[in-house]
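thought: fold this chain, then report.
action: predict
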Amino acid sequence: MSGPEEQPELLPAHEWQSVRASVKESQAKARATRARKAAEAEVAEVDPVARVLVDVALAHLDRPFDYAVPASMADAARPGVRVKVRFAGQDVDGYLVERAATSDHTGRLAPLRRVVSDEPVLSPAVAGLVAAVAERYAGSRSDVLRLAVPPRHATTEKEPSPAEPPVPAARPDEAAGWATYEHAAAYLSHLAGGGAPRAVWSVAPGEDWPRRLAEAAAATRRSGRGTLICLPDGKDVDRVDRALTDLLGGDHHVTLTADAGPARRYRDFLAVSRGARRIVVGTRAAAFAPVHDLGHVVVWDDGDDLHAEPRAPYPHTRETLLLRAEREGAAALVAGFARSVEAEYLLRTGWAHELAAPRPVVRERVRVVVAGASELDLRRDPLARAARLPHQALEAIREAVADGPVLVQNPRLGYVAALACERCRTPARCDVCRGPLALTGPTTPPACRWCGTEVPAWACGECGHRGLRAPVIGDARTAEEIGRALPRVRVLTSSRDRVLATVDARPGVVVATPGAEPVAEGGYAAVVLLDAWLLLGRTDLRTDEEALRRWCDAVGLVRTGGRALVVGDPAHPAVQALVRWDPGGFAARETVERQEAHLPPASRLATITGEPGAVDDALTLLSLPEVGEVLGPVPTSLGEQDEPEVRAVVRVPRAHGPALGRALGELQRVRSARKLDAVRIQVDPPSL
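observation:
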């Protein structure tokens, strides 16, 4: 006998109505599904093929795939929009890069699943740049696109971007600051006239360089074009932001930085993408900003390692901007207090021209001396070259602090970063893990930097002595020592834990680690550089270049007529280049030595790092140009389970750099398709 389940009419009235409603809802869903499938089956009449870059990081899938454009999406599916597509059995994100009339695929094309947004966020110029950067650094376009296009913020996308107001007319004295530099007037004139000059700007000490960059951006904007300025960190971005606001007002530019937050960053990105703003200031990811009618690209302090992207494919801001300038016919400016060997190479090859101040101007701006450099200095203080904080340095601080703030650059963070036996100089080590001992404060006992074990009763394992000395002193201990020597002077610290952006013009001493130096109102009266040997003691290809760059960045903060003192070896070439304020001459010598050694920038170089078997497989599959050579592999470190990690260096002449990029890209695709063990490929690494 059948029950109510099989005979719905036997159910109570209210349950019977619920069943009828459920049946109608199912029928409506079925009709909607049939309608949707019918709409998907009906493709667009015009350009029914969509070429999509799918967001898949596998190198062998780094190419556009063809999809059918449903008629219902014909209007929304424009080049540059985000889409969802079916790929390898799942829905994935992608970018529609082109609409076409036909496809090379002979079978049936899968339809687009949906258009995520009808906002075009990938312009043709940026799409081409992404492909060029991926080829240059042997990476995939998917990885580069993550740098170029920020994540979508749906609420922000619905908001309109305010239109740009008229650009203010040029002030009579707007370009007066550029008159200090030879050929700078011609450079600005070309920018204002719609030209594309290319230059390397060696900035003189005490220069208000954010103002100068703002003036160059204003000249470019008045020609109807846009400007893109990339800086190492947010502190520099804020300075240029204020300079542009003061010169043009706050409605003509945007800032793109990682710490801006998802909503604000996407809002500013859309303002640029829609053409409502033509001046962009930001950090390394801003190099891909979709500026309309781009006329000028600027990179400040290109030697700073913050310009090197730490994620694959590891592009460098300078190279990205130079590629973009070539592709879009824009002007280019590589600027900084110091000069990298790559910037010097641009001058040597004639790709760019130099903008520099005459020697008399440089001598007026700053005077740099070395502690204990003269016989008179040594007679006054016999330990001037051996002491960490010699009497000459304290006297320089004492004299200058009466006129304003003084900057002391200390290249080591913390209190006492290393300890050694007071008698035999043997480094102090932990008995538990053999790690180095250090002091974190004036009242704390020695503790291991690796495992944190405190060793209050330490004794030297070599001689049994219990006394300790501090061969390496951090910024906190330096500030303490200066405070004791100058008890009535205000002493501030600026380092990783607490970085000061600015300090006022009141007298005082600022002890800062390299890169954390705050900007003083009106400039510093003096700059003291301690422990020069520490920056010069690293084992790296760029050790001397990096040390000079950090010194120049600090000395560049002095006021006109200020002085700087270096505590280091007066005979070292980098110290001598600082004394003469000749970073260009130092970079020229470094470039010649690099050319003789067949090192970048005269050569294109790549490293392949991984487990020995994986690196051997990669070298076997790599099809190098005939002029290419392989150095190594050599051990670099121990990985997990004590597995050795090795590195091979691949090198070709610079003219064959594109061929090397293509060969490494093909290697990545073959490895990806065969699912071989992972290796890390880095083209022109910032350190070696």
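thought: worth noting. Residues 424 and 463 are 7 Å apart (CA to CA).
final: tokens above.
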